[in-house]
Amino acid sequence: MKRLATTIALAGLALSIAACTGSGASSAPTSSPASSGAPASGDAGTLQISARNLQFSTNALTAPADEPFKIQFENQEGAPHNVSIYNDESRSQTIFRQDPISGPQTVTYDIPATPAGSYLFLCDVHPDMKGTLTVQ
């Protein structure tokens, strides 16, 4: 009987967690869930990235050259994060930047058409959170 009660309690907890994390709550600029560097199913132009435990879910993103694209960013923790894009490690030229958001929250960034090349993306609040955006 004790085993059955434990199993039922764990199943209920799993359902509660799934219901909370699958809500896709929205916020500015625009929103939807995210988790990897691959395009979202249903929107081939949207790249996915998330932040958790002071790390990005990927350190490599690829986007089309000379075409606007979207990055769907999910901050899965309370610490503020963002995804900014710079010309290189010197950060002498900003390609894209938005203010950090506290989580849990998901936003979709509209990235302007960018020439082919290799760019740095990072969290401005936590500069060790970074990766390479390859535009080709």
Could you characterize what this model shows?
The protein has one domain: Cupredoxins -  blue copper proteins (Immunoglobulin-like, Sandwich). The N terminus is likely disordered. The N and C termini lie far apart (60 Å). Strands 1, 2, 3, 5 and 8 form a five-stranded mixed beta sheet that branches. The chain has one helix and ten strands. Helix content is 15%, strand content 37%. The chain is an alpha+beta fold. It is globular and about 35 Å long.
Key features of this structure:
136 residues; Immunoglobulin-like; disordered N terminus; single chain; 15% helix; 5-stranded mixed sheet; alpha+beta
Topology:
Elements: H1 2-21, E1 39-40, E2 43-52, E3 55-56, E4 60-63, E5 69-75, E6 84-86, E7 94-96, E8 105-111, E9 117-122, E10 130-135
Parallel strand pairs: 2-5, 4-10
Antiparallel strand pairs: 1-2, 2-3, 5-8, 6-7, 6-9, 9-10
Task: Provide a concise account of the structure shown.
The protein is an alpha+beta fold.
Q: How many strands in all?
A: 10
Low-confidence parts lasting 5 or more residues at pLDDT below 50? 1-42
Percent strand = 35-45%
Name the helix and strand elements from N-terminus to C-terminus, one letter apiece. HEEEEEEEEEE
Superfamily (CATH H level) name: Cupredoxins -  blue copper proteins
CATH fold name: Immunoglobulin-like
How confident overall, as mean pLDDT? 78
Oligomer: single chain
Rounded to the nearest angstrom, the radius of gyration is 17 Å
**What is the level 1 CATH name?**
Mainly Beta
CATH architecture label name: Sandwich
Amino-to-carboxy terminus distance:
60 Å
Give the number of helices: 1
Number of domains: 1
**Shape from CA axes?**
globular
Share of helical residues: 10-25%
Specify the biggest β-sheet.
5 strands, mixed
Structural class: alpha+beta
